[in-house]
Write a structure and sequence with these properties.
The structure holds two protein chains of two kinds.
Chain A lengths: L7 E8 L10 H16 L8 E5 L6 H8 L6 E5 L5 H14 L6 E8 L12 H4 L21 H16 L3 H16 L13 H6 L2 E4 L2 E2 L8 E10 H5 L6 E8 L20 H14 L8 E4 L4 H10 L8 H6 L16 H4 L6 H12 L13 E5 L3 E7 L1
Parallel strand pairs in A: 2-3, 2-4, 9-10
Antiparallel strand pairs in A: 1-7, 1-8, 4-7, 5-6, 8-11, 10-11
Chain B lengths: L25 H8 L4 E5 L5 E2 L14 E5 L3 E10 L12 E7 L4 E6 L12 E8 L5 E7 L5
Classes of the chains: A alpha/beta, B mainly beta.
InterPro entries (chain A): Thiolase, Thiolase-like, Thiolase_C_2
Keywords (chain A): Transferase
Protein name (chain A): Acetyl-CoA acetyltransferase
Chain lengths: 391, 147
């Protein structure tokens, strides 16, 4: 294998159905979505030679490789930080292909996160125990105080931002309404055919008062998503129109951590996303004005606003106004989370939004951007991001 | 037969979850059990840090000083967890990020304040509440006027 710099591209995407009770093992979900991504690309799963997932994915590399019949696995790695890993998987796959170390890198994330365990509920003993590699070093400092769920940690993170800029919970509702409108016309979405109004949002129960209501929160879902990354040259000969990884990066600044992120200087901004943006724009020579769509990790609605600001789509404090004026809509400045996002489509730890970025570039989204030609799409999971482009 | 006098009513058992204690933070929780509020600073360059850790991120010294903190701070952020109701609380607690006078922040509770009276940046002072397993944790209440 040559060891010269090799451009990377996404050649295949795959997913299972998104549900609340898959009725099968997480390993089976992983195998099904991995096979679907290989079929989409037109390669045999036997030829996968790199595998990437999240540290907290419950399926074992060897077990999954045995399902797929992987002949010779050259590289495996896992990404810390819960959902922050989503775009970082693409970053690492790119790096492995760039370095000439792998030909066919499989990214997967599969979970029964509704039927088997629930991230949104109080933690069980196993989830409460400290696990290194999750990138969430100080969650233990929250638990005795009744901050036991991702929503509580996310609300504490958002409170100062919302206070400083006078962002109300009603303002957040515009994010939810737009994402559910996208989900309503996406047959893959759990909330297909079920749009909401701003009043529905305001009538949903408080999860974290006075910041987050039920309809500000991502779903809990069962399902699996996979991506097949290869060289741009190889991708050109495969089944689908290749999607080039123009740039990808990760940024964990000093004193930041995933979600219990209360220790850096200014809690009204997201320094990790600002760092990702800086590197991504430098790496690609592009800027926010060059993106025709974005898929932004939306565990909770305020974090969409914080990322829109961090990536420079609007100024600090202007995220709510950007969304309220239709900025995320198909005919807006930046069509965002066009699959319905993690609140509308499903919560497969961000990966289902990553593959929506690929669909927008292929021209196959259920909510395809048609008003302009889609050349570049940003995918972000806060601590990591990638710019995908037409090859 | 004489009537036995009623036994005094025991105080209600604490229902708050005890802290999960790791090696590098044991001094903090041990002190809390004795109602002492300690912080960690570098034994060489004297800078405070939180959460506790074995090495100074500034000068990389392994010398640690455990020092008594003022116990004063301000509410830097807050939330009221409504759903699911967190374990160990009869009524929804007020969870805060407190910014301590010494410059570090930590997560805690604001106690003795009506929900509608919580204010961003309000001044608070430390006291202690019991947990299950005979431990205590530092929590905060509005700062008394005399300061």
């Amino acid at each position: 294998m040559t060891r010269q710099f090799t451009d990377a591209a996404i050649a295949g995407i795959g997913h299972t159905e998104y549900s609340k009770a898959s009725g099968r093992s997480e390993l089976q979900l992983a195998a099904e979505c991995a096979k679907a991504a290989c079929d989409d690309a037109g390669i045999s799963p036997h030829d996968i030679d790199g595998m990437i997932t999240f540290t907290i994915d419950n399926s074992d590399e060897v077990m999954l490789a045995r399902c797929l019949g992987v002949k010779d696995l050259a590289y495996t790695t896992r990404i810390p930080g819960g959902g922050a890993a989503a775009a970082a998987t693409i970053y690492q796959a790119m790096a492995m292909v760039n370095a000439g170390l792998c030909k066919h890198v499989l990214i997967w994330r599969a979970m029964n996160e509704r039927s088997q365990y629930r991230f949104g509920q109080n933690p069980n003993q196993q989830m409460m125990a400290f696990q290194s590699g999750n990138g969430t070093g100080s969650l233990l400092w929250c638990v005795p105080y009744g901050a036991m769920t991702p929503a509580s940690w996310g609300a504490l993170q958002a409170a100062r931002y919302m206070h400083k800029y006078g962002v109300t919970n009603r303002d957040l509702g515009y994010v939810s309404v737009q994402q559910r409108a996208y989900a309503a016309t996406n047959p893959d979405a759990w909330f297909f055919g079920k749009p909401i109004t701003l009043e529905d949002h305001q009538n949903s129960k408080w999860i974290q008062e006075p910041w987050l209501r039920l309809l500000d929160c991502c779903q809990e879902s069962d399902g699996g998503v996979a991506i097949l990354v290869t060289s741009l040259d190889r991708a050109r000969d495969m089944r689908q129109k290749p999607v080039k990884i123009l740039g990808a990066t990760q940024c964990i600044p000093y004193n930041t951590e995933v979600i219990s992120n209360y220790y850096h200087d200014d809690l009204t901004e997201m320094p990790e996303a600002k760092g990702v943006a800086k590197r991504l724009w430098e790496m690609t020579g592009l800027g926010p004005q060059d993106m025709q769509a974005a898929m932004i990790y939306d565990a909770f609605t305020p974090h969409v606003l914080l990322q829109l600001e961090a990536f420079g789509f609007c100024k600090p404090g202007e995220g709510a106004g950007f969304v309220k004026s239709g900025g995320m809509a198909l005919d807006g400045a930046l069509p965002t989370n066009t699959n319905g996002g993690l609140s509308g489509e499903a919560y497969i730890h961000g990966m289902n939004s990553m593959i929506e970025g690929v669909r927008q570039l292929r021209g196959t989204s259920a909510n395809q951007v048609t008003k302009r030609s889609v050349e570049n799409v940003l995918v972000s999971s806060g601590m990591a991001g990638a710019v995908l482009g037409r090859a | 037969m004489t009537q036995t006098p009623d036994a005094p009513t025991p105080p209600p058992k604490p229902t708050r979850i005890a802290p999960i204690i790791q090696h590098d933070a044991k001094f903090f929780w041990d002190a809390s059990d004795k109602e002492e509020f300690l912080g960690e600073k570098c034994g060489d360059c004297q800078q405070f840090r939180f959460p506790p850790r074995p090495m100074c991120p500034h000068c990389h010294s392994l010398k640690r000083e455990e020092v008594k903190l003022s116990g004063y701070g301000t509410v830097h952020g807050w939330t009221i967890p409504r759903h699911p109701p967190p374990f160990g609380f009869k009524e929804a607690p007020i969870v805060i990020i407190v910014e301590l006078q010494e410059g570090t922040r930590m997560v805690s509770n604001l106690v003795g304040v009506a929900y509608e009276d919580v204010k961003q940046d309000m001044e608070v002072e430390v006291f202690f509440e019991p947990t299950m397993g005979n431990h205590k944790v530092p929590v905060f209440r509005p700062r008394s006027k005399k300061a």
